[in-house]
Amino acid sequence: MKRILGVVLVAVMAATIAGFAAVQTSSAAPTVAAFTPKLTAWSTCSYGQCATVTVPLDYGHPDNGKTVKLALSRKSAQTSAGPYAGMMLLNPGGPGGSGLYLAGRQSDVPGSAAKRYDWIGFDPRGVGNSVPSLHCNSSYFGANRPNFVPTTQALYDYWRKKTNAYAVACGNSSAKALLPFMTTRDTVRDMESIRQAYYNQATSAKKPMLTKLNFYGFSYGTWLGQVYAARYPTKVGRFILDGVIDPRRYWYHSNLDQDVWFDKNLNSFFSWIAQHDSTYHLGTSWLTIRSGYNRLLKQLDAHPAASGKLGPDELTDAILEASYYVYHWRSIASNYSQLVRSGNGTPMWNRYVDSNQGDDNGYAVYLAVECTDAPSPSFAWQRDDTWDVYKKRPFLAWDNTWYNMPCLTWKASAHTPVNPYGTQVKSHILLISETHDAATPYSGAVEVKRRFPTASLIAGLGGTTHAGSLSGVSCVDDAIAAYLADGTVPTRQSVHSYDLGCPKVPVPSGGLLGRTSASSVMPLLLRGS
């Protein structure tokens, strides 16, 4: 999760200022100076086909010999689907999410339109199979951590020391050379390098001469799409942005927005549980269940469940998914009911472990991007804001603050925030957002529609699912298929609202087992946008 500070960092690298000062209004499409990105031959892999593209570590000095190798995956276009339409680059969000699996989403689009494109997933710099890959401390997310809510000075001291230690660990990582070059700006330039390298190779292979980037971004991927489109407006082809980042709020204030909406969506989840009290036996009103949840947090603080491993912090992290998506509501409710009614915390502990422990690559990259994309406020500022939110929306307030706190002592400088507008973009852009999305609140999608005059907005009315396109809602998925076929988008209505209202991703029916339609698009890193 993220935040934005409304002040501007004055001291910033001259190369960064020169490269992106005109991002708001640029009509030119600058190229990567003095460097030709190199794409290897494609080979069979578990994702279909894989390759790597070599790009500069520092685009300000592309000839210094220091490079990054980005991992790519591909599901090729099918000649039977119609004329070749080029590459479709995809990003799952995070920042820090691996995108290699996304090439396989080609088959989830109704009809044959998507099969005219080569679907290309990629691991952004620092992520997964890209080289180097950033790792700092794989044991950072542990068991029975001290309470997130700092009701004593000792808790303040613990969390400040722990978060600072993580920043230090990243600064000492074997991939520490990446840290000054992990901004959204850098990844956008990587996307342009991928576009150049891919079409150079495709032309050599006698595919039709194409030049534009087609892009499908989820969550943080929508921010990449916005910044790329403003930076390279003449290179924009089909752009689908689902779960839209608010360009006014990144990253500090967007976290405060998330704190409010994740709390609201937790209550929506509890309301659903209450509707199925005959299954879960936790109460017939969301308020009763929420009150029980608050009591349970205190009980776990004193007596952790799951053999002393599941405290209030771990429960908060484990149940967070219910505020992101509806897909697993039944299994989460079942796990939670077992914890409340029988004291069996093992299923909920396992859910926490699945989401948070092990390789910290996603978290490390998340911080590497967000800590350098924009400056963070002082600790006192964050403390006061968090307590203000906590008074009314306590669910994730302190959890979220500590999650982002390493930025205060990060070992690379923050940059001036970019401010993308799409007034020079000529291609239609498709925006998608559910109206109660917590990770990227709906108001952000409306703002991006205002900034990009060629954008149309599809709203999932009343939905709480984040970045949930291609989940089987035909109204949304058919619109995506039509857009990929010939560029058709819903006719723009009021600039202050959506252009096509669709049903939300459906909540599950009652019962202990199962889930709604599949969503392999869910980011592996929940704690992002």
From TrEMBL:
GO terms for molecular function: hydrolase activity. Residues 398-493 form the Peptidase S33 tripeptidyl aminopeptidase-like C-terminal domain. Residues 88-337 form the AB hydrolase-1 domain. The keyword Signal applies. Coiled coil: none annotated. Residues 1-21 form the signal peptide. Keywords: Hydrolase, Signal. Pfam families: Abhydrolase_1, Abhydrolase_4. InterPro entries: AB_hydrolase_1, AB_hydrolase_fold, Pept_S33_TAP-like_C, Serine_prot/Carboxylest_S33. PANTHER family: 2-SUCCINYL-6-HYDROXY-2,4-CYCLOHEXADIENE-1-CARBOXYLATE SYNTHASE (PTHR43248), TRIPEPTIDYL AMINOPEPTIDASE (PTHR43248:SF29). Belongs to the peptidase S33 family. This is Alpha/beta fold hydrolase.
